[in-house]
Design a protein that fits this description.
By secondary structure, this protein is of the alpha/beta class. Helices cover 43% and strands 12% of the residues. It has twelve helices and ten strands. The radius of gyration is 19 Å and the shape is globular.
């Protein structure tokens, strides 16, 4: 398939590149660093070689979300968005953008999102999980009451948002002590992100803003495979859950998932059965994953050609209003 659209594809700027070093072995760090900072050469070459016609780019993780100083977070978000806008303007047929937002200040985040959509033409925003606010130990999740006006502003723009992983803070999750290999994309990313997404789905956010759409990577961070049990248990007792419907209803009406970094046919088939092919989209997770691995799998996996077209391109065109 030669015209795929990918939408969990990352870049970095000089102020955020150091955040990604922890996810690379020393012998591969320089190569990963080069790919994150590159727009013109390696990124385009890999897209061309493996059939990605268009990539929606987003800042690396945790980046802005890991900056406890609010003024600094606002500054770095604006700088990253301006860098990305410049690159998108140079290659509008190949690149789109997700805004990075200073969620430490919900009002500032709303203003920056409005600027990025109205002035820079971005397709929505991507947040790297919770934000550290004020100090390194204080965190904010986005179902908190102070984000009500932010979500109203985001919904009014009619653009989706991507909930992207970050590691939990070690002080808050001692279960990873002595088992560092389970942090990051091995396991902790999925656990942290899925809980945050479930908080949003169960908070009533999508009752208040039924048209708002959330995107989850890595085949939904495990949620589609456990949603029956989640709803089954909550049917026995809602335990104060404020949303109006079952969480599975929001999964099928307000959530899209991508194939980023999870190139496995049984996983795809299970997600198809749970959510349908209209809510799955192709992605790579470049440069943390390879275009080659994603494309070799997706272009030949055992699904119908109709579903391959939808997942590989058409669903993203519909969601983002692309030509």
């Amino acid at each position: 398939m030669k015209d795929k659209i990918a939408l969990e594809e990352h870049f970095a700027i000089d102020l955020t590149i150091g955040d990604s070093q922890v996810y690379a072995r020393p012998e591969v760090w320089q190569g990963l660093r080069s790919k994150l900072m590159d727009f013109e050469q390696q990124r385009i070459e890999q897209m061309d070689a493996w059939g990605t016609a268009y990539s929606i780019l987003s800042l690396n993780s945790p980046a802005v979300q890991g900056i406890a100083d609010t003024a600094r977070a606002i500054e770095v978000a604006r700088r990253a968005n301006d860098v990305l806008a410049e690159q998108v303007a140079r290659r509008p047929q190949r690149f789109g953008g997700f805004a990075a937002l200073p969620m430490q200040d919900p009002a500032a985040a709303a203003r920056e999102l409005e600027r990025c959509v109205a002035e820079l033409g971005f397709h929505g925003f991507l947040v790297n999980g919770f934000s550290q606010v004020g100090d390194e130990r204080t965190v904010a999740y986005y179902d908190a009451p102070q984000y009500a006006d932010f979500w109203a502003a985001a919904a009014a723009l009619g653009k989706p948002f991507y909930m992207h992983p970050r590691d939990p803070l070690p002080a808050r999750e001692p279960i990873y002590d002595g088992a560092h290999w389970l942090t990051g994309p091995t396991w902790a990313f999925a656990v942290e992100t899925s809980i945050h997404a479930l908080r949003l789905m169960s908070s009533g956010l999508f009752d208040r803003h039924p048209a708002l759409q959330m995107i989850l990577g890595h085949f939904g961070e495990g949620i589609p495979f456990n949603i029956w049990r989640v709803d089954h248990i909550l049917r026995k007792g809602r335990r104060g859950m404020p949303c109006e419907r079952e969480i599975g209803d929001y999964l099928r009406s307000n959530v899209h998932i991508t194939t980023s970094g999870n190139f496995r046919t049984p996983t795809l088939l299970s997600t198809l059965l749970e959510m349908g092919s209209d809510r799955i989209m192709y992605s790579v997770d470049y440069p943390f994953e390879k275009h080659e691995d994603a494309a070799r799998w997706f272009d030949h996996c055992e699904i119908s050609e109709n579903d391959r077209r939808k997942i590989g391109r058409d669903n993203a065109r519909t969601l983002f209003g692309l030509p």
